[in-house]
Amino acid sequence: MYQVKTYNAIAQAGLDQFTDNYQINKTDEADAYLIRSVNLHDQTFPKSLKVIARAGAGFNNIPLDKATQNGTAVFNTPGSNANAVKELIIALLVASSRNLFAAADYAAHNSGADISLRTEKDKTRFKGTELTGRTLAVIGVGHVGSLVANAASALGMKVIGYDPYLSADAAWHISTRITRARTLGEALKSADYVTVHVPKNEETTGLIGSEQMEIMKDGVKLFNYSRGGIIDNAAAIEALDARKIRTYYTDFGENILLNRDDVVVTPHIGGSTIEAEANGATQGANTIMTYLETGNIINSVNLPNLQVPFNAPYRVTIIHKNIPNMVGQIATALADAGINIESMSNAARDGVAYTIIDLDNLKNEEDNKLIQRLSKIDAVFRVRVLKK
């Protein structure tokens, strides 16, 4: 029986995925965490914790180094909220082009007998533009960006995509009508609208700063519904004051952005829909079950991807440092124990490696002995024995 501990409000659709072999919130000594936005950085992980699944794309609330040292695989659920973010971006593109927020605010604060006459006179100040024929730069064309690019193109916009890390698989999801820029500057220079959809890391923090904003057309409209910090907010304020940027829309508030008519801050609602929460919870639950029952890894954020058909009676999985002779030491330990290896697979990601070994025979009393023997190897973080 596997134990799962949840944090935050996890959609029931996700919890319903777990089979009878799983218990939910019965103990703190859990095999798995299924979370959303809870901050785990100050928490001490139990040794029993084998996997954390985050029902969402972001994972900056999880201490990856601590998890790896504990032998805990960490997963996110990329794409689970992509449609929700896409729809919000399209809504904001329409709202920004037609000055809907300012127009609604005007109407809400004006009333009286002569409102019709004043409205006819004043409405010209809210005259907008149509999206058709306008140029949108989409920075990052992965799960969310590709949907945004395709939807904007379907509205008649000229779309330029930029993503230096675009995979061949992701490229299949992008319409042939999307122009691919070779550089960030090339994507920005002719855009009427710019939206960013990249993960936050060392390379993307501050990706759009003063230098990039200077490249943009005067009067551009800028959107950040990816992660806070990818757009330099201080630089954005300077560009707004200089009328370089006309309006800035973001899901990530900061004091310097408040109380400005040219900034619209939403309360981190980009992926907050009933459907997106259900998608993330469902994907997270299935990820947990797949990892615990087969050891296979896809979409981990701290371990390498490795998927091997589980056809043998027994499987040993080992999380360890990516250093020389680790596989040799593991194989030697198994040979010394008189255990025959049916197949072995290994993958590495930066300083961490993951090894899957399938065995055709293993006596029940040897399980713990094998785990202890392999765990004694320096640089091994966790050993598990799985039975088909």
TrEMBL record:
<dbReference type="InterPro" id="IPR002912">
    <property type="entry name" value="ACT_dom"/>
</dbReference>
<dbReference type="Pfam" id="PF00389">
    <property type="entry name" value="2-Hacid_dh"/>
</dbReference>
<comment type="similarity">
    <text>Belongs to the D-isomer specific 2-hydroxyacid dehydrogenase family.</text>
</comment>
<dbReference type="InterPro" id="IPR036291">
    <property type="entry name" value="NAD(P)-bd_dom_sf"/>
</dbReference>
<dbReference type="Pfam" id="PF02826">
    <property type="entry name" value="2-Hacid_dh_C"/>
</dbReference>
<dbReference type="InterPro" id="IPR006140">
    <property type="entry name" value="D-isomer_DH_NAD-bd"/>
</dbReference>
<keyword id="KW-0520">NAD</keyword>
<dbReference type="InterPro" id="IPR045865">
    <property type="entry name" value="ACT-like_dom_sf"/>
</dbReference>
<dbReference type="InterPro" id="IPR029752">
    <property type="entry name" value="D-isomer_DH_CS1"/>
</dbReference>
<comment type="function">
    <text>Catalyzes the reversible oxidation of 3-phospho-D-glycerate to 3-phosphonooxypyruvate, the first step of the phosphorylated L-serine biosynthesis pathway. Also catalyzes the reversible oxidation of 2-hydroxyglutarate to 2-oxoglutarate.</text>
</comment>
<feature type="domain" description="ACT">
    <location>
        <begin position="315"/>
        <end position="388"/>
    </location>
</feature>
<protein>
    <recommendedName>
        <fullName>D-3-phosphoglycerate dehydrogenase</fullName>
        <ecNumber>1.1.1.399</ecNumber>
        <ecNumber>1.1.1.95</ecNumber>
    </recommendedName>
</protein>
<keyword id="KW-0560">Oxidoreductase</keyword>
<comment type="pathway">
    <text>Amino-acid biosynthesis; L-serine biosynthesis; L-serine from 3-phospho-D-glycerate: step 1/3.</text>
</comment>
<dbReference type="InterPro" id="IPR006139">
    <property type="entry name" value="D-isomer_2_OHA_DH_cat_dom"/>
</dbReference>
